[in-house]
Amino acid sequence: MQAVREWLKQARNVAALTGAGVSAESGVPTFRGNNGLWKQRRPEELATPGAFARDPKLVWEWYNWRRGVLAEVKPNPGHYALAELEQRLSAFTLITQNVDGLHLRAGSRNVLQVHGSIWNLRCLICEQERVDRRTPLPEIPPTCECGGMLRPGGVWFGEALPRDIWREAEAAARSADLFLVIGTSAVVYPAAGLAQIAKASGARVVEINIEETAISNGIDSFLQGPSGKLLPQLIA
Ligand code: BJW
Ligand code: ZN
After folding, report:
1. Residue 36: band (very low, low, confident or very high) from pLDDT cuts 50, 70, 90
2. What is the pTM of this model?
3. Which of 18, 34, 45, 109 is the most exposed place for a label (fewest CB within 10 A)?
4. Domains in the chain, ordered, with CATH?
């Protein structure tokens, strides 16, 4: 921890990649943890265009449940520590795989939501996007004024990430001299590849997680523990 604090002090350009683990202490279930499985279904069975085409109501029930959970929770000290870090540093980019919006609620401003937002809905026919924060939604699946079915706005398996946001994320990974990887299993690409991009571009890579992950070997430091505890310690 002491060495990482020093690296943070020396760093001119810091980027962080967060995953579901950063919101776990707020009470948001992770995707691959023991409590992450909704009705025993893996995310690969629900977060795909094929699953939605087969059974839109089932996929919407999953999202309705998650939206309901999110309506009840608050950012935790880990989210607030990252917002504070942005205030202190001249260059800080927060790249998040999370669709929950908790970083924004904690006050982070330079946030790249590479997997979109759970509060955005998109029409399958006219492709118009809208924000809808109602929980539960009054109608499942919800429909657009044009009559088309609305889908959740997040990025599913097999879909491209939003192009401009992804470009910014890659650029942030390339220009960082310190790259933090927090609360992600680092198995979902291309987001997980940002750590390798940062490393190859010369950054120190530090991981914060309660357990080792797919990228823990070959990074500069692994801090084991909950991010809601370790992030406030790191910036203290
Ligand atoms: C704590 C903690 C605490 C707990 N403190 N830590 C084979 C090889 C490589 C890639 C592929 C492949 N086959 C297919 C692919 C591509 C695929 C992929 O990566 N698949 C792998 C699973 C194999 N990727 C894609 O399809 C992506 N698109 C793509 O590649 O497009 C190509 C393309 C180009 C051009 C045209 C068309 C296509 C898209 C991926 C989209 C992922 N979507 C989801 C759903 C988002 C919407 C929603 O939320 O509803 O994103 S799936 C889900 O996984 C979600 C998450 O963002 C993502 C990552 O999960 P995350 O955040 O890491 O969560 P967990 O649960 O896995 O981990 C939590 C971690 O926290 C754990 O490590 C815990 O230990 C830790 N933790 N408590 C700190 N208190
Ligand atoms: Zn429409």
Report:
1. low
2. 0.97
3. 34
4. 1-28+75-115+161-236 (3.40.50.1220), 29-72+119-153 (3.30.1600.10)
